[in-house]
Amino acid sequence: MHSVYSFVTGPMVWVAFGVFVAGCLFRLVVLLSQVSRKEPFIFSYMNLKWSLRSIGHWIVPFATVNWRRHPVLTVVTFVFHICLFLVPIFLLSHIVLVDEAWSISWAALPDGLADALTLTVIACCLFFLVRRIRSPEVKFVTYPSDYVILAIVAAPFVTGFLAYHQWFGYPVMFILHVIAGEIMLIAIPFTRLSHMLFAVFTRAYMGSEFGGVRKAKDW
Amino acid sequence: MDERSNWDWEPGARTVADLNQWKEQYVWVEEPYVRPDGEAVAAIVNVDEGEFTVCVNGSPWEENTYEKIWHLRYLADGRLFAIISEMGEWTVSLDGAPWETKFGYVWNPIFTEDGRSVAVSFQQDMQYGMALNGHCWESTYPTMTNAALSPDGRHTAAAVQVASIGEADIQTFQQGCFTVAIDGSPWEQTFVNVWNMAFSPDGSRLAAEVRLNLYEYTIAVDGVAWNSVYNTVWEPVFHPTDGSVLAPVRLGGKWWLYCDGKPFWDPSFVQLWHPTFSSDGRRLAAVVAPKFGRWTVALDGKPWSATFRDMVTDLVFSPDGSRLAALGKEGPAWKVAVDGRVWDNAFDMAWQPVFSPDGRRVAAKVERSGKYTIAVDDRLWGRQCDAVWHPVFSPDGKRMLIRAVENGEFVRHVISVADIAG
Amino acid sequence: MAEPAEEKEKKGLDIGLEKGVSKLTPEKIEQTINDVLDKECGPRFKTYVETCIHCGLCSEACHYYLSHDNDPRFSPVGKVKQTIWEMLRKKGKVNGEFIKRAAEITHTECNLCKRCAMYCPFGIDIAYLMTVVRRIIHKLGCTPQYIQDTAHSHSVHYNQMWVKGDEWPDTLQWQEEEAQAEIPTLRIPLEKEGAEIMYSVIAPEPKFQAQLIYQAAVIMDQAGVDWTMPATVGWDNSDMAMFTGDSELMGRLKRAHFETAARLKVKRIVMGECGHAFRSVYDMGNRWLGWQMPPIPIVHAIEFYAEILRAGKIKVAKKFSRPVTLHDPCNVVRGGGLHEDARYVTRQLCETLVEMHPNREHNYCCCAGGGVINCGPPYKMKRIEGNRVKAEQLFAAKARGAEVLITPCHNCHSGLHDIVHHYGVGLEIKFFGDILYEVMEKPEG
Description:
The complex is a heterotrimer of chains A (219), B (422) and C (445). With 219 residues, chain A is mostly helical. Chain A is built from twelve helices and no strands. Chain C has three domains: 15-143, Fumarate Reductase Iron-sulfur Protein, Chain B, domain 2 (Orthogonal Bundle); 159-309, no CATH class; 316-439, Rossmann fold (3-Layer(aba) Sandwich), CATH 3.40.50. In chain C, the strands form two sheets. Chain C has a four-stranded parallel beta sheet with strand order 2-1-3-4. Chain C has a three-stranded parallel beta sheet with strand order 5-6-7, with helices on both faces. In chain C, helix 14 (276-289) links the parallel strand 3 and strand 4. Classes of the chains: A mainly alpha (219), B mainly beta (422), C mainly alpha (445). At the B-C interface, strand 7, strand 11 and helix 3 of B face helix 1, helix 8, helix 9 and helix 13 of C.
């Protein structure tokens, strides 16, 4: 037990963050180098103003027609993505770990709030799950991998919540939480979770095409 | 060149015809065309409802009027060409003398550089053929495209359909129903498509772009396809002296210049077209896009460093092949580029540059704000005209004939080239 | 427009698909798919596929999806799933039946209208993915018969209607003569080097709708425009090769178009009221040839009419009195931003504009574009049934008073004609040119 604990909280953390950072960089470098090699024309159309115009509309809730058409999904999506970053970065116990290691710290969320936001993420994941199962247009394009990806994202929050409340045995749950977090980090560059990296580029490119060439809105 | 030495090269300006008077004389006057020596100007004019003639220096070119006249052009040898129609039949008229043969329709005239040969495409009873200097192909075809005339003016060719294709019969089409007909006689080989073709300088051989199936393109020379196939090809050219055939070909998403089915230039380009030889065949230039959205000229495979965003056109070598000029377009501005150096002057429009006989001077017809003038070596002639035609250098290259319309008058200017170029 | 002549309601086989598929072998399919996906497609394709999180948010963008009661098979991502994803998942090892279905999906269940690009939060270009499928279908030789035949016409005559070399100038001269009965001095100047504008059209105009050339000539004449039309190939701006995935042929056509304009030394190309041709010359064909933007500016008829009306070159004698509604064609609105110009022209020419909803960039497609109508009779009902929402949208505009439907695009015109007829919408369909010609001041008028 102890050796597993040391491994997942020691070298495995380094591996996970290493793979995450290197993987993300690798994917971006590959993308950009392939574009310059195989589809350099894309760069000729990329334009900062039009990119930001498009991204700006799509990162604001209800600023696009499609966000307005799906109010519940829009709220869930934005809340989910905000909490997905907010909770792990501003969780007191995470900050303490960083502080202990490198004496760097920053403001933390109150534990009660963090707990509530964790539940919110889990609830959002449940919403996505139900939507995948219940909405025909989503179900039709759902593969087992979509459930796996959802599980990868939900797992750190579920295990974190259980560990914090010390249900089902704290040590085991803590280890599971660390492992779940590490799996998610590793998965981001190499699964459809990579939309975290690529969405900004696809959006920017479409925004540039619509703004510069098509002279039309893309929202 | 000999003929040019007989022209009037005495410096000065001489009004040849007053087009204003024509406008009073006729219902309307169409675009004027001028003889190479500048001694005559002609235009299609409307005499009355459905009655047309050609007015040359103020007089009709013949007694008859026609229901329709179009495609009026002066040939290099000074003859005046037009397509005319009477009683629903069409033919060619040269200097007001119609060909004896009449057709269901005539279009797409092609002239040799010296103007001595004229070929047209004709339609008669829904069959198609070509007529060369009044002589028609003996065989005609249900479809004919991509007409060509040999440089010596003795042969004509076109892509023709040699098998019948039913409506929307894609299967038969893809078996290959087209070939090349030279002087009316078809090649034995058929292709899915045949497009642009080139005669050898002596007119004895012919190369054409062909499509073997929907996906494989190549060049066929005298009916024999190159051994290799390509994603697509552009128009072939014959080497002026050694008989080899070159064409741009597309492979792997890039364009390459090939000769007789083998790579010729090293580099590939985003685009490569209009391969053009100097007259002695020692140098070869083409319009290329070295990268997406940038255009220039490649000389013997090496692109100029100056590039343009929109277009490069009108590639031309000096008579001795030592110099090379082209037009480049960047946004609304057209510029002249010579040997890789771009003129400072920008124009709303420019025409193909003209080299002096010794190649030292470059002149071009240019337009700014609706007014036309002549530029020589990046310097402008002082006069702004309503129209000008290509400048013509005297055989010794010291003088220049400028044919211009000013205030409605057609004026023949002979100037000293130094007056513009300094 | 561009429907095959004599379109009749025919059910059943499409020999393009049937015979095409019958010639395929598993090896040929596998190799072709992998060649296109690996060699021709690049990071754009890969990123689109890998970034899509299968959320289904593009679904409601598609008129087929909406018209089929939200049947997920018709959602944009649903079409990607049934084609691209399967090809990738099976590494190209799909069977002939799959290819046939893929050909139907990409050619007759998607108009490449790109409305879904505005609904995907990531801006994934699903229409582009569908064009990749069309490219594969082309390479496999399974393109639907009628649109393939049109591509063949392009390959022979550089126009989409088998219009022969003589028929083009002959038609222009005939229309010139017709128009001279109305305006005796009117000309259609052929091959006038140095004119300001080259006017280009699609082949259905000389073939079936020569009155549109007549009207354009009257408009040009009265506006005092210095214009010309070529008497050679290059006059036709249409491009079904773009829609069959035959990029090489598309490039050939567009090169002829732009080089003809360059040969005539014109400063701009003004084109008739056609959408797909605009896409071809403004967006697709130029890029394949290496031009970032059209080397000679392209001015669509909507923009041109707006320009001459703003400049006062055409005066309106009496505005069109019947209330009109305006269909925004995807290729010139979502693809060219001409929606406000279209409204300006409408207000200048007509007394009452009744907007249909949604409109502008969000307008529903006509369901004819993207080459769908060009696939011909076997798919006519599919096309009409696939656009019930359009009929509903038009009914709503009619309920608010619209009597006339303006559609500044040939494909839209033909497609909406079928919709209006089938569903009994009861709107008269017109081009801007029809109305402009009708209401403008003319010498006799």
